[in-house]
Design goal:
The complex is a heterodimer of chains A (443) and B (233). Chain A is 78% helix and 0% strand. Chain A has 15 helices and no strands. Chain A is globular and about 60 Å long. By secondary structure, chain B is mainly α. Chain B is 54% helix and 3% strand. The chains are: A mainly alpha (443), B mainly alpha (233). Chains A and B meet through helix 2, helix 3, helix 7, helix 8 and helix 9 of A and helix 1, helix 2, strand 1, strand 2 and helix 5 of B. Chain A: It comes from Oryzomonas japonica. Chain A: InterPro entries: Cyt_c_oxase-like_su1_dom (IPR023616), Cyt_c_oxase-like_su1_sf (IPR036927), Cyt_C_Oxase_1 (IPR000883).
Amino acid sequence: MVYTSQKIANWYFSIALFLFVLQVIMGLWLISNYVFTIPQEVVNVFPFATARAMHTNLLVLWMLLAFMGGTYFIVPMETESEIWSPNLAWFQLIALVVTGVVALVGFAFGWTKGRPLLEIPPPLNYMVVVGALVFLFNVGMTMFKARRWTVIQGTLLGGLVFLALLYLAGIPFYRNEVIDWYYWWWVIHLWVEGAWELVTGAIMAFILMRLTGVDRQVVEKWLYVEIGLFMFTGIAGTGHHYYWIGAPKYWLWVGGIFSALEPLPILLMVIDTMNHVRHRHAQIVNPHTWTIAMGCAVFHMIGAGVWGFAHTLPQVNYYTHGSQVTVSHGHLAFFGAYALLNLLVFYFAMPQLKGIEIYKPTRAKLGFWTMCSAMMLMGLTFGIAGVLQSYLERVLGMGYMTAQSYMRLWMGVTLVLGVFFLGGVLITVCDLLSPKAATERLD
Amino acid sequence: MTKKIAFWIFLLGTLSSAVLFLGLTVDTHRQVAALSHADKLSENVVAGKRAFEKYNCNDCHTILGFGGYYAPDLTKVVQRVGEDGIRYRVKHPELAFANSVRKMPQQHVSEVEIESLVAFFNWVGEIDNGDWPPQDSKKRLSRSEQRLSLGATVSPGAAVFQTKGCMNCHSLHGVGGTFGPVLDTIGRTLTSEQIEQYILNPKSVNPNAKMPPQNGLSDRERDEVAKFLGNLK
């Protein structure tokens, strides 16, 4: 580590990890609601809806903090300068964490905007915007003062500005439910299949370049092609959410065609990662970091690419829309594309920030493989429940709760898998917060 | 391929997709008014949307397929349980779901808000959204009804019972909803004629009935299902 201001990243990462644990615990409570009958008195005080708002907002919060921390770690190395204002970085971290805590406590008391995933109510919304603006200003000033522009930091900054702009689409109250969902997806879809992919592409390129020593020109060339394909398929691909909301029929065509192409950039990312590793110039000092990078690329492909493609065509989506199939896809895609990406950044940066060049990978491996296997199996059990639901409820016309009774077994299996997943997360978090230096070289 | 070509791939890819998307957004705005019947979007409907959001309904229920997957989709809820069915469930969830394995919270929603919610659901149910969800599609369920009744063991009445939402509340031999009474031996208490009357106007047969009148059934469907149930002895 060369730049002292990078240290702030460690705080972003540590808080993100803590929120990640809370998110998973909340997930276990949610799945318990599917398996057991929760008494009316408990439901009155702490309904499923409140817990779901917490589960999803914790996800968004920890991922945004991880992206921001990652940016504060990467930008000094890319610009070869200190962060413009470490104080602003501190201010922004505190502002966002306070906003998040107030929002989560507020949910418990029924203070909500009531829009799924965007439950944070208006006054707090503006705090998020202020936090994001301070962040962008700080990062922008660092780049501007250094006068050293790279494609990686351009993509990173572009993705973050795009992310912040899209958030605005979710703030107003829309009178028409159809228009409301139309712009809701500008936040949700264009985040995860647009802005966040830009951030991911930049971070992956940066880490691969550092890990493998492959020439910057080559890495950045492929980064352009990747993000070009992500944007081409992702922007118009938003249409796959407009099939059944009361929008014009041409969205069936636009959404179907563009989103069928969405796996392509992800596939390119997998090939690209493998290629860079094969043609590496530097010795890989921490092989486990490379394992996470490969795991991220492959899981991203399965969760977002394959699972997304599986129910994106209108003919299939007519039956699977709004069922547990979506839950299966959501869990695999978020974990594969974004949770693993952030864990990759953490494993790349956190030992370095503590002065450890080569870390002992024993706990890291145990945590990684536990999380990955548990999540893969959860994707399958949610998927089975989803296929049952699509067939029983949507094809056969069985009542909602009757169909759910056939899915209950699989939700029970998911609960058990969720406990294993939490175990993997706890091992990983402990390892990251107190990384151990390897006593001997691994090769 | 050079880096310059890669840059142009990025630029053209992004711009072409963005131009298409923004163009269609403008056109969607033009068409949504007609598709969603925006002329019927009264203040009461909007108040219902606000109530729907105030009580965070959307984090358990989906509407137009989006939201939580913990409870039934509400797009066609008026068609499925009727206006009175909605009022009863929102007002007394602890009674409505007393026997259900899943509960709905008692949120003390006011009478005015409940009426606005009903208006909102009525409006949403009329959106021209490509005949989704399939389980509430009149077109598709009548087809599955036909297919069921063609089977040698299933009477037309049984098919109506299975496809017209009766089983959302009632059960037969352990399959179906828990909201209404079990109908395994209903023929012992009511005749087919009484059942037909009950379906038309529940309160005329049983003043304490919570079941809403089933206006969605055709005369033939009502006749068949009553005959079927009357024979369950």
